[in-house]
Design goal:
The structure holds two protein chains of two kinds. By secondary structure, chain A is mainly alpha-helical. Chain A has two domains: 1-83 and 297-335, no CATH class; 91-282, Orthogonal Bundle (MetI-like fold). Chain A is built from 14 helices and no strands. Chain A has helices spanning 2-29, 34-39, 46-56, 62-74, 88-123, 128-141, 145-159, 182-189, 194-229, 232-239, 244-282, 287-297, 300-328, 330-333. Chain B is mainly α. Chain B has one domain: MetI-like (MetI-like fold), CATH 1.10.3720.10. Chain B has helices spanning 13-26, 29-46, 48-51, 89-125, 127-142, 145-156, 160-186, 190-197, 202-210, 215-238, 250-257, 265-293, 295-298. In chain B, helix 4 (89-125) runs parallel beside helix 7 (160-186) and helix 4 packs across helix 10 (215-238). Chain B starts with 12 loop residues before the first helix and ends with a helix. The relative contact order of chain B is 0.14. Classes of the chains: A mainly alpha, B mainly alpha. Chain A binds chain B through residues 11, 14-15, 18-19, 21-22, 26, 29-30, 138-139, 141-144, 146-148, 150-151, 153-154, 157-158, 226-227, 230, 269-270, 272-273, 276-277, 280, 291-292, 295-296, 298, 303, 307, 310-311, 314-315, and chain B through 30, 135-136, 138-139, 141-147, 150-151, 154-155, 227, 231, 234-235, 238-241, 251, 254, 258, 261-262, 265, 268-269, 271-273, 275-276, 279-280, 282-284, 287, 300.
Chain lengths: 335, 300
C-alpha cells in the first residue's frame, strides 16, 4: 500500500509543476505586464513603472520569477486580490466552505437517488421502469444545468413561491461563522428558523448541481450491475433459490460497488465545473462564483491563485479516490 | 447467370462490417430517434434564412415581450413570442441552430485532429516523448474543464471563435489518451509488423495502417464530445464569455433573458429547450454508436 501511495505521489509532482507553470504563465501571456495590469486604467509614468517593476521583482529573469512564485506558494502566499487587497488564500478559505457544503449535499443527493435507480433499472432490465429511468438519466446527463436552474427558479420560486431565489440564508438571521457550513452554523446559533432557512436556500442549488452526477451514477450503476448479474456466482445464488432481492442487493451490488465508487470519485472535477454555473445562477457565495466574478473583473491574482487551489483540490481528491480504490480492490495496488 | 449476383455471404469483409453496423444501429430505437432529430436540426440550420419568418436581429418596436401565440396576448405573427427588444424568438432559435452545430463540428475537428496526432506520436514513439506528452495532458485534465475554458477565453478575449478554441483545447486530451491507448495495443500486432517489414515509413504506419483500426472508440468519443462542446459553448455564452449579443446563440440568448425569468417564461424556456433537445439527440446517437461499435457491449 505504501509503495502504491509513493508511486501515485511521484506522478503528482510533475502534474503539480505543470499546474504551477500554467497558473504562473497565465498572467504573463496576457498583453501588458503585471504592473500595467495593477495600475489598470489610471496609467503610470515611465519612471514609476520601472520602479514598480523592480519593486515586485518583475525585472528579473523569468525563471527566477517562476521559482520565486513556487517558493511563495509553499509559504502559503499566492498573491493578493487587486480589488479587495486581501490575500487570495484568505478569500478562498472564507468562500470554500460554501462550495463544499453545496457540493457535499449535491453528491449525497446524487448518490441517494442515482445508485438505487441504477440498481433497480438493472434488476428489472427491459421493463418500463428501466426504460423510463434510463430516459430520465440520459435527459439529466444532457441537461444544460444553467437553464435547468432557471427553470426551477421560475417554477418553485416564481410560481409556487416555495424557495428563495438566491443566497445562503435569509437576511433576518445573523450569527458568527464558526464552521463555514451554513447548516451547522445555523443549528449552533440556536436561532429559531435559521436552520430551516438555510435548508430552504440549499435545496434548489443542490438539485441543480446533483443533476449530472445523478444521471451519470444511475447509468454507470446500471451497467456495472448488469455486468455482475450475468456472472456465474449470481446464477448459482439464484439457482439455490435465494430471494431474488437478496441476490441483487447482497451478492451483486457489493461486487458492482468498485466501478460505482470510481464513478462517484470522477464526478468531483465535474462538480466544480457545475459549481461555477450553479453558484452564478443562485448567487451562491462560493469559489465558482468568485472565479467567474474575478475573471470578469480582471482580478488576475485571484484567478491565478484560485486556479492553483482548485487544481490542487481536484488532484488531492483524485489521489484519495485512487487510494480508496486500492483499498477496496487489492488487485490494483499489487499491479 | 447466378455467378453475376454475389450472395451476401461473399461481400468483402469491410462491406460486411458496414452492413452489420447499419443493421445494429438501425435496430436501436433511441439512436434512430436521435438521428432523425439531428437530421431535422441540420436541415433547419442549412436553410435557416429561408425557414425563419424574420431576420434574427429584426426588432418590432410594437412587440416587446409578446407571449407565445397560444397564450393570452400572444400573436400568430410571433409563434413563440418575442424577447425584450421585440425580436422574434422562433427566428432567433432557428438561426441559433447554425451556431450550435457549427461550434460542435468545428470544435470536434480541431480537438480530434490535435488529440489524434498527439496521442499517435505519444503511443508510437513511446519513451520520454510519451511521458512528457501524457503529463501535459494530465495537467490540462487537472483543471475543471469549464474553468480552464473560461480562463483561456479571458486570455484570448471573449467571443465565439475564442470560446471554440478554448473548448477544443480542453476536450483534446480525451482524444489523445484514447488514441495513445489504442495505438499501444495495436502497434505490436502482426499486421503492423508485416507492413513495417514491407518498408513502410513511420507516418504511413501511424496514419494509414494503425489509425483505421483505432477508429471505433474515437468515433464514440467524438459524438460525446460534440454534445459537450455544444453545452460548454452555451455555458460560456451564458457567462458572457462566448458569443456576444446580439448573436442568436442559445446560451447568449439565455444570458440576455435572465432578468426576465419571473416575468416572461418563454424567453428563458425555449433557448434552453433547444440546447437540451440537441444535446439529448446527439447523446442518443452516441449511446447507439457505442453499443454497436463496442463488441464487448454488443451482446449485452
Amino acid at each position: 500500500m505504501i509503495r502504491f501511495l509513493l508511486r501515485k505521489l511521484l506522478v503528482i509532482v510533475p502534474t503539480f509543476i505543470g499546474i504551477s507553470i500554467v497558473a504562473f504563465g497565465f498572467v504573463r501571456i496576457l498583453p501588458g505586464d503585471p504592473v500595467m495590469l495593477m495600475a489598470g486604467e489610471r496609467g503610470l509614468t515611465a519612471e514609476r513603472h520601472a520602479e514598480l517593476l523592480a519593486q515586485f521583482g518583475f525585472d528579473r529573469p523569468i525563471w527566477v520569477q517562476y521559482l520565486d512564485f513556487v517558493a511563495r506558494i509553499f509559504q502559503g502566499d499566492i498573491g493578493s486580490s487587486l480589488v479587495t487587497k486581501k490575500p487570495v488564500l484568505q478569500e478562498f478559505a472564507v468562500l470554500f466552505p460554501a462550495t463544499l457544503e453545496l457540493a457535499l449535499c449535491a453528491i449525497l443527493l446524487a448518490a441517494l437517488i442515482g445508485i438505487p435507480l441504477g440498481v433497480l433499472a438493472a434488476a428489472k432490465r427491459g421493463s418500463w421502469f428501466d426504460q423510463l429511468s434510463m430516459g430520465v438519466a440520459l435527459t439529466g446527463y444532457s441537461m444544460p444545468i444553467f437553464w435547468w436552474g432557471l427553470l426551477l427558479i421560475i417554477f418553485f420560486s416564481g410560481t409556487l413561491g416555495w424557495t428563495p431565489v438566491s443566497g445562503r440564508i435569509s437576511l433576518m438571521y445573523y450569527f458568527p461563522d464558526s464552521t463555514g457550513f451554513m447548516l451547522i452554523d445555523s443549528l449552533l446559533s440556536g436561532q429559531k428558523g435559521a436552520f430551516a432557512s438555510a435548508l430552504h436556500h440549499l435545496i434548489l442549488p443542490s438539485i441543480v448541481l446533483a443533476t449530472i452526477p445523478m444521471a451519470v451514477l444511475a447509468r454507470q450503476t446500471r451497467s456495472a450491475m448488469l455486468e455482475v448479474l450475468s456472472e456465474d456466482y449470481v446464477r448459482t445464488a439464484r439457482a439455490k433459490g435465494l430471494n431474488p432481492w437478496r441476490v441483487v442487493s447482497l451478492h451483486a451490488f457489493r461486487n458492482a460497488l468498485i466501478p460505482i465508487v470510481t464513478t462517484l470519485g470522477l464526478q468531483i472535477g465535474g462538480l466544480l465545473t457545475g459549481a461555477i454555473l450553479t453558484e452564478t445562477i443562485f448567487s451562491w457565495p462560493g469559489i465558482g462564483k468568485w472565479m467567474v466574478d474575478s475573471i470578469s473583473r480582471r482580478d488576475y491574482p485571484v484567478v491565478q491563485g484560485g486556479l492553483m487551489m482548485i487544481a490542487i483540490i481536484v488532484m488531492a481528491v483524485n489521489l484519495i479516490v485512487d487510494m480508496l480504490y486500492a483499498l477496496i480492490n487489492p488487485r490494483i495496488r499489487h499491479r | 447467370m447466378s455467378e453475376m449476383i454475389s450472395s451476401p455471404r461473399e461481400r468483402s469483409p469491410r462491406l460486411q462490417r458496414l452492413h452489420d453496423f447499419a443493421v445494429g444501429f438501425s435496430t436501436n430505437r433511441g439512436a434512430m430517434i436521435g438521428l432523425i432529430v439531428m437530421v431535422i436540426f441540420v436541415v433547419v440550420a442549412i436553410f435557416a434564412p429561408w425557414i425563419a419568418p424574420y431576420p434574427p436581429a429584426q426588432q418590432f418596436r410594437d412587440a416587446f415581450l409578446v407571449p407565445p401565440a397560444w397564450q393570452e396576448g400572444g400573436r400568430v405573427a410571433f409563434l413563440l413570442g418575442t424577447d425584450a427588444v421585440g425580436r422574434d424568438m422562433l427566428s432567433r432559435l432557428i438561426h441559433g441552430t447554425r451556431y450550435s452545430l457549427y461550434v460542435g463540428s468545428l470544435v470536434i475537428c480541431i480537438a480530434m485532429t490535435g488529440g489524434v496526432v498527439i496521442g499517435m506520436i505519444a503511443g508510437y514513439v513511446g519513451g520520454w516523448v510519451d511521458t512528457l506528452i501524457m503529463r501535459v495532458m494530465d495537467v490540462i485534465l487537472a483543471f475543471p474543464s469549464l474553468l480552464l475554458a473560461l480562463v483561456l477565453v479571458a486570455i484570448l478575449g471573449p467571443g465565439l471563435t475564442n470560446a471554440m478554441i478554448a473548448i477544443a483545447i480542453v476536450l483534446q486530451p480525451h482524444f489523445a489518451r484514447l488514441t495513445r491507448a489504442a495505438v499501444m495495443s495495436e502497434k505490436g500486432k502482426e499486421y503492423v509488423t508485416a507492413v513495417r517489414v514491407g518498408g513502410a515509413k513511420p507516418l504511413r504506419l501511424m496514419f494509414l495502417t494503425i489509425l483505421p483500426n483505432c477508429l471505433s472508440p474515437l468515433v464514440v468519443q467524438a459524438t460525446l464530445s460534440f454534445s459537450t462542446a455544444i453545452l460548454d459553448a452555451a455555458a460560456l455564452g451564458f457567462l458572457g464569455m462566448g458569443a456576444q449579443p446580439p448573436t442568436p446563440e442559445w446560451g447568449t440568448m439565455l444570458a440576455e433573458a435572465r432578468e426576465f425569468i419571473l416575468r416572461a417564461w418563454w424567453v428563458v424556456t425555449f433557448p434552453g429547450l433547444a440546447i437540451l433537445v440537441t444535446v439529448l439527440s446527439i447523446n442518443l446517437i452516441g449511446d447507439g454508436l457505442r453499443d454497436t461499435l463496442d463488441p464487448k457491449l454488443r451482446k449485452g
